[in-house]
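Researcher: We plan to redesign the surface later, but first we want a full-length starting point. Tokens attached.
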């Protein structure tokens, strides 16, 4: 297998040279199970672990390898290999780690496109789409909205759903499919191109793995019967996996995501809620929070329905989450720094007490 098939390109070649990694085998992480990785290389697939040094110097979860990463490794035998370095990533999809303050969880890296998948028959939520869009826009990953299970509703209802969605999300392509009848598959296949990586995002049960299996024409991923999704916490897919399709597209299947928590989004919110940011330029106060201020152009636009009210509310909620994440992350960094200082201090005392 050539590395190009997995998305290797001149940019990664440049990074390899810049980081003096010519002596290493280069590969891409295709799956992860609790810090044990599978890496694909020109010599085949290998199980891999990370070096003690990489573990020791890792400050946050972000420093650990993730599915989609390009890594430099030393291969020992047909089974084992050690990852020495993670090459710089060109994009990262991450969310707030569940239950941990100020931490983020990487979903996948080096992604070109994201498929934001929602089933039309249940839990359909534009608020959630805007969340996914924000995490994609943060890392400049081009999103597609994929509506699944359209075999379960009639065309009139589907068109209504799309029209409502378009009122809030108008610049993102929407593709409606059924994994059962294959409706919409031709359109979907057109956007999956060779050597590009697509990350599948969505709640449990929307049909991510079924899509992967159907496109690959193989039962690569486990899928689960709809009835078993009524129990909360049951996911069919329990790990991330990168799959190469016959047509050359690279898909990353993920476990269903329940909470799409927002982190520090840089311009992610700005791009997702472009219209709000456009109006905000005309607010009376530069630091307007768009909540209570007199002379707030955003509030005025909401009142005359130039800005969708639900979209505005969703924006405010996510903006708050972003600020909260930034504050807790800063606090966490400070604590870690103080802890580091304390360790240094004690080491110094220990050293000086020797004499
Ligand atoms: N009617 C219908 N059922 C579908 C469609 N796509 C998937 N399903 C069914 O939905 C159920 C869940 O599909 P999965 O592919 O396992 O869903 P998933 O998104 O991978 O779920 P997790 O791995 O838990 O995140 C399975 O029983 C599928 O057969 C579709 O287009 N139409
Ligand atoms: Mg799955
Ligand atoms: Zn304002």
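Model: Full-length starting sequence:
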């Amino acid at each position: 297998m050539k590395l190009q098939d997995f998305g290797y390109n001149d940019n990664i070649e440049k990074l390899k040279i810049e980081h003096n990694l010519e002596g290493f085998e280069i590969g891409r992480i295709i799956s992860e199970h609790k810090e044990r990785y599978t890496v694909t290389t020109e010599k085949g697939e290998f199980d891999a672990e990370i070096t003690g040094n990489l573990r020791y110097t890792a400050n946050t979860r972000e420093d650990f390898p993730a599915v989609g990463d390009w890594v430099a490794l030393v291969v020992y035998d047909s089974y084992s290999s050690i990852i020495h370095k993670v090459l710089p990533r060109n994009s990262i999809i991450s969310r707030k780690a569940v239950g941990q303050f100020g931490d983020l969880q990487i979903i996948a890296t080096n992604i070109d496109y994201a498929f934001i998948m929602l089933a039309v028959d249940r839990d359909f939520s534009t608020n959630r789409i805007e969340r996914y869009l924000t995490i994609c826009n943060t890392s400049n990953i081009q999103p597609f909205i994929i509506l699944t299970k359209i075999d379960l509703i009639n065309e009139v209802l589907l068109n209504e759903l799309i029209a409502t969605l378009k009122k809030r999300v108008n610049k993102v392509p929407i593709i409606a499919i059924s994994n059962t009848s294959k409706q919409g598959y031709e359109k979907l296949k057109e956007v999956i191109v060779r050597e590009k990586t697509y990350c599948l995002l969505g709640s449990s049960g929307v049909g991510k793995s079924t899509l992967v299996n159907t496109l690959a024409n193989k039962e690569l991923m486990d899928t689960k019967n709809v009835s078993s999704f009524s129990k909360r916490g049951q996911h069919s897919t329990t790990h991330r996996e990168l799959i190469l399709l016959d047509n050359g597209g690279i898909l990353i299947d993920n476990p269903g995501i329940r909470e799409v928590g927002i982190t520090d989004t840089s311009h992610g919110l700005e791009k997702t809620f472009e219209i709000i940011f456009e109006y905000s330029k005309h607010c009376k106060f530069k630091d307007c929070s768009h909540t209570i201020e007199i002379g707030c152009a955003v509030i005025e636009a909401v009142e005359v329905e130039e800005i969708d009210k639900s979209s505005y509310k969703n924006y405010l909620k996510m903006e708050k989450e972003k600020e909260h994440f930034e504050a807790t992350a800063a606090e966490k960094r400070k604590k870690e720094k103080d802890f580091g200082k304390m360790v240094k201090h004690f080491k110094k005392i220990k050293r000086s007490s020797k004499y």
